[in-house]
Amino acid sequence: MTKLVIVESPSKAKTIEKYLGDEYKVVASVGHVRDLPKSNKNAIDIEGGFIPHYEVSKGKEKVITELKKLAKNADEVILATDPDREGEAIAWHVAEVLGLKKPERVAFNEITKDVVQDAMMHTRPIDEKLVKAQEARRVLDRLVGYDLSGLIWKKVRYGLSAGRVQSPALRILMEREREIGRFVPEPYWVLTAHTETAAKEILTLIAREEPKTESGAEDILKRARNSAWKVADVKETQQKRAPRAPFTTSTLQQTASTRLGFSPSRTMRAAQKLYEAGLITYMRTDSTTLSPAALAEIDTTVAKEYGENLVTRRAYKTKSKNAQEAHEAIRPTKSAKMRAGTTDDQKRLYELVRARTLASQMADAQVMRTKITVSFDDTNIPDFSASGSRVVFPGWLLADLPARGEDVELPKVAPGDALALKNITSERKETQPPQRYSEAGLIKELEKRGIGRPSTYASIIDTLRRREYVDPENRSLIPTATGDVVSSFLENHFGEYISDSFTSEMETELDDIATGDREYTKTLKDFYAPFHKAVASKEDIEKLTNLGDAPKEFPCPKCGKHMVMKLGKNGVFMSCSNFPECDGARTEEGLEIKPDEPIGRHPETGEDIFVMNGRFGPYVQLGQNPEKGEKKKRGAPKPRRASVPKEVDPGTVTVTNAVKWLSLPRTLGAHPETGSEIMANIGRFGPYIAHDIEPKPDFRSLKGDDDPYTITLERALAILKEPKKVGRGRFAKKK
After folding, report:
1. Are strands 640-643 and 698-701 parallel, antiparallel or unpaired?
2. At what angle are helices 457-466 and 264-276 packed, to 10 degrees?
C-alpha cells in the first residue's frame, strides 16, 4: 500500500520522510499551485457572489503533472501543509488541482518523529471554513488593491499602489512624521555633580530639576558650589523581574530586530528553515501557550542546567482575542538541544528562541535598586540624587543573559554623611521629538491596533520598502515624498477605509468567517458595495497636477501654515501654502530648500541662483534650465552648476555661498614655460589643480591648507614642480 504525503517545501518533505515508513512517499508542492490571475479582468465574479477564478501559478505546470501522476498511483493521498489558514488553503488548492474527491488532511505544530507519526493516525477533512477565511482575505485584498491603485494611477501617478493593510501602516508612519514636523524643541540644562565620600569614592549625582534657562542653571551652580553637601537619604528597594512570555511571531520579529538586527523577512526566512528542519515549532502564531509535554521537558532542562530551585511553571495569557490557540508559542522542539541550525542566522535565531523559552519557565530575578539623595542648607538648591541597581538573585536572567543589562554599583554611604564637591557642571540639551518607527516598533504598533495578522507583518514592511514609500536604506522607517503623496491622497479621500477602527474590525470579521460566525459572501458584499461606490464617486475629481495637498497638520518650517505637495523640475517637494509670501519648502529628505524659486541673483551676471536636488544630491545652479526645444539645439549653453557640500544644510544656502561654489573651476593663469592654463577645482576625489598640457593634463591633489578657492598661481607652480607621486594600487603601471 502506497501513501502519498504532500507538503509545501522540499526541505520539509525531506525531514518528514525520515520519520515515516517505506509505505509513505513525501513530496512538495513548492508553495502555492494556484492563485488569482495578475490581470484583474474576470479574476473575481463579484455579481456571482465574489467567486474567484484561479489559474495555475506560472512555472507550476511540471510540479502539478508530477503530483497527478503520483496521486493516481497512490492508495491514499494525505495533505500535510502548514497548520494555519494559508496552509489549509494550499491543501485545498492541491486537492482541487489533483481532483481528489475525499482528501485527507493532517496538521502538526512541530516536525518531530512522535508528532508526525501521531498526526498520520488522526487524519481529518479539509477545514472549509479556514479555506473560506483565507479566500476572503485574498479576494478582499485584491479588490481593495486594484480599485484604490487604479484610482491613484489616474489621479496621481502611474505605478503607485495602495492596499487594505499596507495603507493603514503607511498612515501610521506619516502621522508620526507629521508629529515630528510639528515638534518645537525646548532647551533645558542638566546639572551633574561629582562628589567624594569619606572613603574617597566618587559619587556622581544628577539634579532632579532641569532649568529651562542658562541663567537658572548658573544660579543653581553658584549656590551649590557655596553649600555643604550631605547625604539626606539612602533607599534600597528589592524588586522582582518576571520573565516574558515565550515568543509569538510578532515578539520574535521585534526581539530579533532589536537584538540581532534582523529585518522581519530575514527573521521569518531563518525561522521557516528551523521549522522545516524540525528544530522549532511553527513560527506563525499569536499564541503564548505551551503544551503539557513541552512544559515537562522544559522543566527537566531548566533543572539540569540551572538547578531545580529555578524551575517555576508559568502559564501566559494570550493577548490577541483572535489568537489561534490550537498553535503553541514558538519554542525548540527539543529544549535540551543547546545549538541548532545550518547558517549563522539560523543558529543565532535558535539560541534566541531557546533562551526565551527556558526563561519563561524560570524563577523571578531579584534586583536591588538603590537611590541616594543629597540635601543642602540652602533650600533654593534642588535635590541631587544618584540611582543604582544590582542583581541579587539572577533567576531567569541566567538563561537570557542579554536581558540582564549592567549593574550600577553606588558607594556605601549613610544619611548624614558629608560629601566633598569635586566639580559641578551644566550641559545644555533640547527636548527631542518622538522617534520614528523602527521595523520592530511598527510591528508592535500594528499588533496593538489590531491591524494585520502575524503572517502579514513582514510582507507589509517589505512592500513599503519595495515601493519606496519609506527610505529603503534606513533602518528607521522614514516616509519618502512618494509615500507622503500616496498616504495624503488616501487620507483625504478614503480616510474611513484606512482608519484603525475600520481595519481592525475588518480583520475581526474575516476571522469570524474561520469560526463560522460570519458568512463569506455577505461579509464581502457588506464591505465592497459601499467601498466601490466611494471609489466611483472620486472618478470625477481633478487629476493632481501638483500631487495633491499635504495634510494641514504638516506645518511649514518657516511660518507654521500647512504645506502642499508639488511636482517640480527636480522631483517631488513640499511648498508652503502661503507662497509667495512665505517661500518655505521641503524636499523628500526633509531639507528646507526652494526647488522652483531663486534664492537671489548673482552680483556680477544678474542671473537667478537656484538650490536644486538632483540624482547625486543638492546643488546650486546659475540661471534657468533651457526649454525643451532649446535643449535640442547644438551648442546651446547649459546652466552652470556646483554641488552643495555634504556638511552644508541646503536650507541654509545663501547667495554668498552659491557664488563661491559657482566660482569653480578657477583659472589661475598661464604656465610661464608652456603657456597652458592652470586651473583649480573640486572633483570626485577632492580639490585639485590641473595643468592643461599635451598629450595629457597634469593633475595634482591639494592637501593641507591649500584651498581651490584661494590658491594662487605661484603656489600652484610650486606644487607642479614637486615630483609627481606614482600610485601603488592595482592600477599603477608596472616597470
Report:
1. unpaired
2. 140
- Record the cell numbers describing residue 246, joined without a space: 515565550
- Return the C-alpha cell found at 612: 536644486
Please say if the pLDDT value at position 396 is more than 90: yes
Contact (CB, 8 A) for 231 and 376: no
Contact 248, 454 (CB under 8 A): yes
Grid cell, residue 168, equals: 493603514
The alpha carbon of residue 284 and the mean position of all alpha carbons in its chain are separated, in whole angstroms, by 20
In sequence order, which residues have a C-beta less than 8 Å from that of residue 132 and are 6 or more positions away?
513, 514, 520
State mean pLDDT over 342-364: 96
Residue with cell 459601499: 530
Q: What cell numbers appear for 188 in the block?
A: 533645558
H helix or E strand, kind and range, residue 419: strand 418-430
Round the CA-based radius of gyration of the chain to a whole number and report it: 34
382 lies in the same domain as 397: yes
Write down the pLDDT at residue 722. 86
13 and 162 assigned to the same domain: no
Per-residue pLDDT, averaged over 543-551, amounts to: 50
Give the pLDDT confidence of 11-32 residue by residue, as tens digits: 999 999 999 988 999 999 998 9
Task: State how far the Cα of 161 lies from the Cα of 504, in Å rounded to an integer.
Answer: 21
Amino acid identity, position 269: R
- Angle in degrees, CA 503, 40, 52, rounded to 5: 75
Beta strand extents in 528-607 (DSSP E only): 563-568, 571-576, 585-587, 600-601
Residues 388 and 344 in one domain: no
Residues 134-185 have pLDDT tens digits of 999 999 999 998 899 889 888 887 778 899 999 999 999 999 999 998 888 9
CB atoms within 10 A of CB 158: 7
Give the integer Cα–Cα distance in Å for 553 and 561.
8
Q: Assess whether pLDDT exceeds 60 at residue 643.
A: yes
Cα separation values, 532 from 135, 168, 540, Å: 19, 18, 14
Q: Report the relative pairing of strands 563-568 and 571-576 from DSSP bridges.
A: antiparallel
- Both 148 and 120 in one domain: the answer is no
- 370 and 323 together in one domain: no
Catalytic sites, residue numbers = 282
Q: Where are the alpha helices (DSSP H) in 156-287?
A: 166-182, 214-225, 249-255, 264-276
Give the domain range for residue 264: 249-359
Three cell numbers written together for 221:
551652580
Q: What confidence score (pLDDT) does residue 629 get?
A: 47
> 277-286, 455-464, 561-570, 684-693 — which is least confidently predicted?
561-570
**15 contacts 278 by C-beta, under 8 angstroms:** yes
Distance CA 271, CA 252 (A): 9
Region of poorest pLDDT, from 213-227, 319-333, 488-502, 521-535 = 319-333
CB distance 63 to 33 below 8 Å? yes
3-state secondary structure of 377: coil
Phi/psi for 704 (5° steps) reads 60, -125
The answer on 98 and 155 residing in a single domain is: no
Instruction: State pLDDT tens for residues 55-64.
Output: 998 888 999 9
Residue 704's SS3 state is: coil
* Closest to 345 measured CA to CA, from 407, 267, 239, 242: 267
CATH number at residue 383: 2.70.20.10
- Cell numbers of 512, please? 469570524
Whether 547 is covered by a domain: the verdict is no
